[in-house]
Structures are given as C-alpha cells and as structure tokens.
Amino acid sequence: MICITHYRFRHVRERDGAPPLRFRMRGFPVTTLVGATLMAAVPRTTALTDAFGPTLAFGVPFLAILAAIYWLRYRRAPGATRSSGEAA
Questions:
Q1: Per-domain boundaries in the chain
Q2: Whether the Cβ atoms of residue 36 and residue 7 lie closer than 8 Å to each other
Q3: For a 10 Å CB count at each end of the chain, is N or C smaller?
C-alpha cells in the first residue's frame, strides 16, 4: 500500500505543478512499481506453499474483518470533511 500511495502522491504532485521535493526516491517510478510488484507476489507465493495455507485461510478473513470495522467506525457522510481540530 505504501508503494501505491507513494506512486499516486508523486503523480498528483507532478500533475499539479508542485515544486520539486527535497528528498526523492532514486529510480522513481520504476523502483516504486518494482516494490509494489514484489509485495503483491508475497500472497501469491504464500498460496503456492502448503505450509502457509492457514495463513491465507485465517489471515485474509481477519484483515477483511479489520477493514470492515475500520470502515464502520470511521465512515463519514457524503461530502463531510474532517475539521482541522478533529483528532484522527
């Protein structure tokens, strides 16, 4: 997720004409896309290894439950924005 967020951040920033960043990742965008690809390969290789079957069988539903709880807890009405004084 970090790689995807970084890629999107840089893309939007460059599109909007923002000044160059002080600290930049070497090899962007190739290194960011390679990192995202390698991270996406982890669950795929986990699925191919018998010993890690329970990891996917229990881990994926657990992450889905956590995501649902987060969504239910922090969802906002359409058009609502967080005020600057509100805690995250």
A1: 2-74
A2: yes
A3: C
